[in-house]
Amino acid sequence: MALVTEAGEPKIGDATIMGKQGVMIHISGQYGANTVEVTKAIEAALDELKPAIAEQKIKLDGDLFRPANFITEAVRNIGNSLLLGAVLVGVVLVVFLFNIRVAFISLTAIPLSLFIAVILLDHWGVSLNTLTLGGLAIAIGEVVDDAIIDAENIFRRLREAQRPLTALDVFRIVREASVEVRSAVVYATFVVALVFLPVMALSGVQGRLFAPLAWSYILAIMASLVVALTLTPAMCYAMLPKVLDTVREPQFVVRMKAAYGRLVGRLAGHVGWILAAVTVLCLGAAALVPLMGGEFLPEMREGHFIVHMNLLPGSSLAESVRVGRIVTGELTKDPGVRIVSQQIGRAELADDTEGVHSSEIHIDLKPGVTGDPEEIEDGLRQRVAAVPGPAVSINPFLTERLDEIIAGSTAQVVVNVFGDDLDVLDQKAAEVARVMAGVKGAADVRIESPPGTPQVTIQLRPDKMRQFGFQPGQVLEEIQTAWQGTEVGEVHEKERVFQVAVILDDATRNDVARIGVVMLRNGEGLRVPLRELADIELSSGRYNIPHTGARRRQTVGSDISGRDLESFVAARREILVWSLVAAVGIVMLLYMVFRSTRNMLLVLANLPFALVGGVAAVALSGNKVSVGSLVGFVTLFGITMRNSIMMISHFEHLVREEGETWNLQALIRGSSERLTPVLMTAIVTALGLLPLAVGRGAGREIEGPMAMVILGGLATST
Length: 718
Known about the structure:
Blueprint: E1 13-17, E2 20-21, H1 35-55, H2 67-97, H3 100-123, H4 130-160, H5 167-195, H6 197-200, H7 204-239, H8 251-267, H9 271-292, E3 294-295, E4 304-310, H10 317-331, E5 337-345, E6 358-365, H11 373-385, E7 391-396, H12 397-407, E8 413-418, H13 422-437, E9 442-447, E10 453-460, H14 462-468, H15 472-483, E11 486-493, E12 496-502, H16 506-509, E13 519-521, E14 527-529, E15 534-541, E16 547-548, E17 551-560, H17 569-594, H18 597-605, H19 607-621, E18 625-626, H20 627-656, H21 664-694, H22 703-717
Parallel strand pairs: 3-18
Antiparallel strand pairs: 1-2, 1-5, 4-6, 4-7, 5-6, 8-17, 9-17, 10-15, 11-12, 13-14, 16-17
Helix pairs in contact: 2-3, 2-4, 2-21, 3-4, 3-7, 4-5, 4-7, 4-21, 5-7, 5-17, 5-20, 8-21, 9-19, 17-18, 17-20, 18-20, 19-20, 19-22, 20-21, 20-22, 21-22
């Protein structure tokens, strides 16, 4: 009557590792869990299981995909950039100030300010990650700048003072020199903080990404302001008087000031030409922006890619495994590939509805593999494309997850077609796919739920059903039992429970021609073949009908290869809108500082110079304008206005406090006196950012474009 055997349920999925049969276990962390700590705990648990598993000759590989690797490397790279930037800043301070004590006083601001910022971040539940560390790294120049301005001004005033100096004289000079720049330092810091309003106001994914960076940056510069107003003057009073008679201003600084004074005198007579040149440069920069293209985020150097492979709907599980092994063989020919694993269909308790014709192939690269992520991706795509038959797409893991969050699909460009008629939906989706495939730069164009799944249609015949005494429900239940199986009982063996299921034999179920000869029995025991009760025919259908808002849809997706992607439009719009709000606050704050419309406009007049340099840096580096670049421009404008505020405040001090008449000589004097702190600010900021800008390792993908923009803008605005 039947063959009784122990067997598993019909498989709806499978997995291979390097082409060999395997089992893949996906582990997700709870919201807010630390990925690195969770990974270490999982690995500790697996280590305990390994001896028992090894006895069963099962190999356990806990490193198929380990996101903690990318996180650890990224944090290490950003931390190294932060440390290297601080060292370079110290070298510049010693060279310019030519005094270890002044340099030490200025450098003290870095660890103290960053330590305060880290404590506050931890208090508010913000972890140290690549973005918060990136914000601290970008803030290094501004962090030390407050102390530089205060210490340099105090040191200069002490050197210029008449000798001998009593302790009371030193105290008075330190206090007056500190008060001289205090107002400008405070207002300049608040202007920089206000400039970051657009970044903190970002919503959605971009807000979650960049808000921690903005907060860490602002906390660092606010902490440095507190240090500059309290600790720096005290350290200057305690440490500088003892070395005043032994230290002179470096000769190269003296010569540089003299040359700069002559340059200012010459440029003062050609204001018209300067304005014309600035106008031309700004127009050129504005014209260059549309040509550079845009992207939401650069490709992450995480070293892990996902290939989506789809065979024709209706393809068997065995066929997906076979083709997947061929693809795995092609991928492992790449010397940079460490391991390849394939996940076919879906797990028994999974939420998705993928059929066995669909696979995800995970590619993990070897540690230390360098190169442009897009070039690596294109190389892997070419290897996969060498396998005829399957439709494939490939993306870095993080890029794919962001695309899923933003667009609801793993594709970078998504077109949704809505309608009620499934045939019309399929037709229009095919037309959209043909158009997208003809667009230069489009890659891996695919339809999410293509029609054509082969199926057998069994249409019951009511007249025959009545003739032979069958009920429709009875026939459908027997068909379901024959081809899908039905649980009819349980067998208990000690603590184990076995489900007992009845199903037709494999040979009959897998032979379409034998469907009609399957015998059914009515209530009186009459046996009738299925073909006498129903019309049986082969047809095609759909394995999945996706919906959005209860409306049927068909989705066409495409990735981008060698071409820019305007997926950052929403973030750009938000930044621009909030920048207008911030601009109103900045104008009000500047007017409070100077009480002069002319001086306020002079501060803002330096922004076009910064814009030109930032745009030029993006163009020369070959980067696209990303959200990170836009945040870099925001930061750059804050730094530029800060420097302008300090310069114009010094001019006002010369006129109001020292009785200078505003003329060319006052301009030259003020410019020369502020030359050293301005250059030091620009150079220490640039060197602090240099490791981020030139680094190519993991973790610098977002902060790198920011640093590049700031470097270019500093070069032209300084």
